[in-house]
Amino acid sequence: MAGARSAAVSGRRDAERGATPGRRFGALAPVLGLYLLAALFGLLVARKLPWSGDTGVHLAVIEQFGRNLHDPPDPMTGVAEPGNVYYSPFTLLQALAFRFGGLDPWTIFRICAVADALLVASGMHHFVRRLSRVPAAPLCALAAVVLVYGTQLLTWSGVYGLASLGLTLYYPSTFALGITLHLWGVLAYALGGGRGWWPYPVAAVLGADVLLDHQFTALGAGFGAIALLLAHLRQLTLRRGLALAGAAVGAAALVAAWPYFSVTSLLGGTGALDAIHRPLYRNIFDVYGLGLLIGVPALALRFLRRRTDPLVLLAALTAVPVCYGLLTGSYAWGRAWPMLLLAGQVAAGIELATALTTGRRPVRVFAGTLAAMVLVVGGWTQAGVLAYLARVPAPIAARMQIKHSWGDYRWLTRHLRPGTRILAGTYHAQRMAPAYRIYPVASVYPEPWLPGDQRRRTDETAMLDPATPPAQRSALLHRYRVRWLVAYPSQAARLRAAGMRLTPVAHSPRYPRDGLYRIG
C-alpha cells in the first residue's frame, strides 16, 4: 500500500513537471481570481463603510473594551456586570489596536473588512481543496455562497450573501466564518491521513476561537466537524481518535479559561432571542429559494456517489435545528439557516467547477448556461453593494434592493457627555447612541446573559408608556438616574399629556423626528 501511494505521488509530481505553462496558468488563474476578488470586495467595503444594523454595537464594544481591558461594562447599557458575550478574542484584538495602536474604531473596521474578506477566501480555498482537486472549485463555491440566496434580500449578522457581508464584513460573525472554514480544512487534512500532530492543537485553538467569537457560527462549525468525523470514520485509528479527543478537551479548556464571559451563561437563553429572529422564517422560498434550488440537487448527486459525504452530512445536521425552530417557534435556531445553505452552495460550486473542467462539451455548455442564469438572478438580488462603488442612477436604484448607510448620530454628543443615560424611544437612538457611550436604559437586543436584562426592558417600556402612573414613572426615572429623553414629537406629546415635564433641547439634523428633551 505504501509503495502504491508513493508511486501515485511520484506520478502526480511527474505530471506537474510536465504540465505546459498554459495549463499551469489555467490552474493558477482561478486561485488568483479568488483572492483578488476577495481583496477587491474588502477594499470596496473599507472605502465606504456603511453604518447599519449592529455597527453601533460593535463601535461601543471597541470603545468600552479598549478603555476597560480588565473589567469592561456592558457596551449597550454601560451596566457594570461581570461577563459579556461581546468581549471575544476578535474584539480583544480590536480593543488592543484601539488602546495601544492609536487607531480609531473606523480605521480598525477598515482593516478588519479587508482582513476578513481574505480570511474567508483563504478558508474556502483551504476547505474546498480537501474535497476537490479542481482548481476552480473554491472560486465557484465562494461565488455560489455569496451570490445564490434568494430573490428577497436578507441582511443579517452571520448571513453570507454579498449584500449582507457588505454590512457585516468587519463583524465577529464574518471572522468566525473564515476561522470555521480553516478549522474544517485542518480537520479534513488530519482525518484524511495527514501527517504530523500539528493539526490537533491548531484545531483546538480554532474551535475555541469560533465558539468564543460567534456562538451561532460555532453551532455550524461543530456540525461540520462532526460531519467530517463521520465521513472519515472508517479511517479513524486509535491514535487519531485520541488526538481528536485531546483537541476537543484542549478547546474546552481554552473556552473555560476565557476571562470575559462564560459560555455556560448562554445555555437556555435562546427563548429571549426568538422574537427578533422570527424574520428568518418569513418568506422562506423568497429568501433562501435559489440556494435550495441549486443546493438540494448538488447534495443529492454527492449522496448517490457517497452516503457519508461531509457536505451531505453537514446539511442533514444543520437541518435539525432549522426544522426544530420552525416547528416549535424557537426562531433563534433559524441562525443555522446560513450553514444549511452553505453546505448545498459549496456542493453546487464544486459540481459546477468539475463539470466545466472535466465534462464533455454538451455538459460544459449546459452547466455554464444554467450557472450563468442562476448567478444573474441571485447576483441581481445582491447588486445593491454596487452603491459602495459609485452612485447608482435613480431609475436603476429604484429597482435594486439597496441597504443604505444610516450616517452618524454624533449630534447627541454636542449636548450629552459620555456616560449619560437616556430614555431612548426612537429606532436610531436605541441602536446608535451607545457608540458614543450614551446609554439607553435597556439594550435594543435581548442580553440573556446580563442579570436584570428583562427587568430593565420592562422598566424602559413602562417609562415610555403614557398609561404608566406618574408616580411610578418618576420612581423609575430616579432609579435609573435618567434626565434625558430621545423621542419622536408625537411620542413626546403623549408623555407630556400624561404629566411628564419635557423641555425640547435639540433635534437630529439627519433624522429630524429624533428629538432630545430634558426631563423635569
UniProtKB/TrEMBL annotation:
Keyword Protein transport assigned: no
Transmembrane annotation, as ranges: 27-46, 134-156, 168-191, 211-230, 242-261, 287-304, 311-333, 365-390
Top-rank taxon: Bacteria
Keywords: Membrane, Transmembrane, Transmembrane helix
UniProt key word rRNA processing: no
Protein name per Swiss-Prot or TrEMBL: Glycosyltransferase RgtA/B/C/D-like domain-containing protein
